[in-house]
Amino acid sequence: MNPARTDLTPTQWRQVGLITLVAAGIFLTFRWLPTGTNLSHMDFRVTAKNPIDFCDPLNPQFIPVVAVASPVTMTLVTDAPPAAGRDVHATLTLRTASGKPIAPEDLLVSNTKLLHLLIIDPSLEDYQHVHPEPAKTPGDWTFTFTPRRGGEYRVFADFTPAATARSLYANAELSVLGKGEAGPSVSFLTKSWTAEQAGFDFALTPAVLPVRAGQTADLKFSITNEKGGAVPMQLVMGAFAHLVAFDAARSGFAHIHPMELDVTQPPDAVHPVLNFKITIPRAGTYVIWAQVNLAGHETFVPFWFDVAP
Ligand SMILES: [Cu+2]
Asked: 15 C-alpha to center of ligand 1: Å?
């Protein structure tokens, strides 16, 4: 390179210095501004030998929420004993290991919400995604949902503390009165990469079959209007589709988003296709619940499959 072209005059040096000073000033001002949270990084430190590990968002892994130690405790209280088919009004309390409440100002918005609950029944047939609202008491959050079945429901919470800016998880159980599945459900035993619902055909197509444990699977998610014509896909929580995978034991979940990250470019109106990548560490039977918004209707569609060793 010609050294004469990179030499700066004293005036240019002064300009460079000024720009650097202004940038540093802006940076320090933002660092100094309070974030609103009273919790620090240390409140979310796990001392147990099996802490929650954070995953690479571009290649998400199955998160074994139940087996790993979370630095957050979640408790659930309901206004009445939960029963299938009836609205359950619940209050959830989030606290750090040292008992500090986790309130809205302690969390960052992720996928357009502060707090996500993934609720799943023992048969994996009833999956619901709800967003609790902060209650008056700091650390308390309320939500309503209607369980479709009976059994020991598991509630996974997904949130991002402002102090760490990384996803964190917690789980709790909720006993629901009513008829549950005595053994594995028909869907669990049948397996299917296709589903029909509300006049639409849904398909999740792996590039290679079978899906193998520990290997990244490329999945194509597509929707067809059974009458022909458009598939009115709209955004839900900042994405055109959310896929959540559960294992038979409900040890945790994987929550994945389309590789097509630019939501200003919607998928094809007639043949929408979205691509996903998932790596499931263990063999077994799984369900992937797809959540989409079709003309304002939130639609949940299950795909049942086996993961080979
Ligand atoms: Cu999502």
From this structure: 45
Give the DSSP per-residue string, 152-211: EEEEEEEEEETTT-S-EEEEEEEEEBS---SSS-HHHHH-BSEEEETTEEEEEEESSSSE
pLDDT class of 40 with cuts at 50, 70, 90 = confident
The CATH label, of 1.20.120.920, 2.60.40.10, 2.60.120.10, 3.40.50.970, for the domain at 186-308 is 2.60.40.10
Centroid of ligand 1 to alpha carbon of 91 (angstroms): 23
CA of 117 to the centre of ligand 1 (A): 11
Q: Return d(Cα 56, Cα 192) in angstroms, integer.
A: 28
- How many A from CA of 116 to the centre of ligand 1? 9
255: CA distance to ligand 1 center in Å? 6
3 state SS of 45: coil
Dump pLDDT digits (tens) for 165-176: 998 999 999 999
Instruction: Report pTM.
Output: 0.83
pLDDT, tens digit, 9 for 90 and up, residues 72-102: 999 999 999 999 999 999 999 999 999 999 9
Which amino acid, 132?
A: P
Q: 259 alpha carbon to ligand 1 midpoint, in Å?
A: 12
Ligand 1 geometric centre to CA of 242 (Å): 4
| Alpha helix (H) residue ranges in 54-162 | none
211-230 pLDDT, tens per residue?
999 999 999 999 999 999 99
User: What pLDDT is recorded for position 177?
Assistant: 96
Residue 6 has pLDDT above 70, yes or no: no
Q: Where are the domains of the chain?
A: 57-176, 186-308
pLDDT of residue 1 exceeding 50: no
| Architecture of the domain defined by 57-176 | Sandwich (2.60)
Quote the ligand 1 centre to 111 CA distance (angstroms): 6
Q: Are 44 and 162 in contact (CB under 8 A)?
A: no
